[in-house]
């Protein structure tokens, strides 16, 4: 991205974060007056920021050179599903709690934007996944995501989930559900359910059972080109499918969920403020003792 090529910048904000809304209004003024670029907003952001004149109802994701997201990683995930099919890069501004994907912060935002507008940034491609729900031989639902696909009991009833990997039977999980995470999503729901931390640029998928009722079911890391098929053998209650934690879709007995690597990728604007490993240590205090400052033993 060079200065001469960046003509339009999109903005999308967290749906309930009022600080993000205020920053969004300030950012619009800066981009228009200081940077001299056109600003476009998705329809919901235009309503939240009270700027209907900047609304691009058709598709802001097709019209801009890059998108700035104001919120947490969830805001980036939402933007990624829209931006990826159009090849639009995303600059995430960290206003949440963990911020593994976000690269910028309100305190450095305008300096970071000057770099992005001048092209002094890297574009990092992150693998995405797509999923289909099949019912009686018909595909009834499709979705695209950056973090994870989840099949889960809506009532904490035990499910029987029969799993196929690469077209061959693999295992049956008696569990509350199953998470199929990308390497980017390894630090999200999968980690909370006991899955491993995986560097986000690795081409891998992580299978993490949710509360499995067996001692033999453990998280697995598999190649990203493997196709995963989940057959709902016995639901015992309501079952939901979610991609990136949103848009729940009801699953029925005997449905099949197929998850594979998507042809689309999320393009993230990278500023190199911190490495992934630095973020892991800072967010999770990885490898540090919680009873001593900075994880140091005063007697060592």
Please identify the top-level CATH class of the largest domain: Mainly Beta
Main pleated-sheet profile: 6 strands, antiparallel
CATH architectural label of the largest domain: Sandwich
Head-to-tail CA distance between termini: 50 Å
- How do the helices and strands follow one another from N- to C-terminus? EHEHHEHEHEEEEEEHEEEEEEH
What is the radius of gyration computed over CA atoms, rounded to a whole number of angstroms? 21 Å
Structure summary, number of beta strands: 16
Q: Structural class, from secondary structure content? A: alpha+beta
Structural commentary:
With 300 residues, this protein is of the alpha+beta class. It has two domains: 8-121 and 271-284, Rossmann fold (3-Layer(aba) Sandwich); 128-263, Sandwich (Tumour Suppressor Smad4), CATH 2.60.200.30. 21% of the residues lie in helices and 38% in strands. The protein has seven helices and 16 strands. The chain has helices spanning 18-35, 43-48, 60-63, 73-83, 109-118, 189-192, 276-284; strands spanning 8-13, 38-41, 66-71, 90-94, 122-135, 138-145, 148-153, 159-165, 168-175, 177-182, 204-210, 220-223, 228-234, 239-243, 246-251, 256-270. The strands form three sheets. It has a six-stranded antiparallel sheet, covered by helices on one side. A hairpin with a 2-residue loop joins strand 8 (159-165) and strand 9 (168-175). The longest helix has 18 residues, at 18-35. The protein is globular and about 60 Å long.
């Amino acid at each position: 991205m060079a200065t001469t090529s960046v003509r339009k910048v999109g903005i999308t904000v967290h749906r309930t974060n009022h600080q993000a809304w205020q920053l969004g209004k300030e950012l619009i003024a800066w981009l228009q007056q200081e940077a001299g670029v056109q600003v476009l907003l998705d329809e919901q952001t235009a309503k939240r920021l009270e700027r209907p004149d900047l609304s691009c109802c058709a598709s802001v994701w097709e019209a801009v050179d890059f998108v700035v997201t104001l919120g947490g990683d969830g805001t980036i995930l939402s933007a990624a599903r829209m931006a990826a099919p159009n090849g639009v890069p995303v600059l995430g501004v960290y206003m949440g709690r963990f911020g593994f994907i976000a690269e910028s912060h309100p305190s450095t935002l305008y300096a970071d934007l000057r770099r992005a507008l001048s092209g002094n940034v890297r574009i990092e491609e992150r693998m995405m996944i797509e999923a289909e729900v099949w019912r009686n031989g018909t595909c009834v639902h499709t979705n695209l995501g950056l973090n994870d696909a989840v099949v889960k009991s809506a009532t904490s009833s035990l499910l029987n989930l029969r799993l196929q990997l690469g077209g061959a039977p693999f295992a049956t999980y008696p569990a509350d559900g199953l998470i199929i995470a990308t390497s980017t999503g390894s630090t999200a729901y999968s980690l909370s359910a006991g899955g491993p931390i995986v560097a986000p640029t690795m081409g891998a998928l992580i299978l993490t059972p949710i509360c499995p009722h067996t001692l033999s079911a453990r998280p697995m890391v598999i190649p990203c080109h493997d196709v995963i098929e989940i057959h709902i053998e016995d639901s015992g209650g309501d079952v939901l499918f979610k991609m990136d934690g949103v848009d729940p879709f009801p699953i029925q007995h005997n449905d099949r969920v197929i998850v594979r690597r998507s042809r689309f990728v999320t393009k993230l604007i990278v500023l190199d403020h911190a490495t992934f490993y630095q973020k892991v240590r800072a967010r999770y205090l990885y490898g540090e003792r919680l009873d001593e400052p900075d994880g140091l033993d005063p007697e060592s």
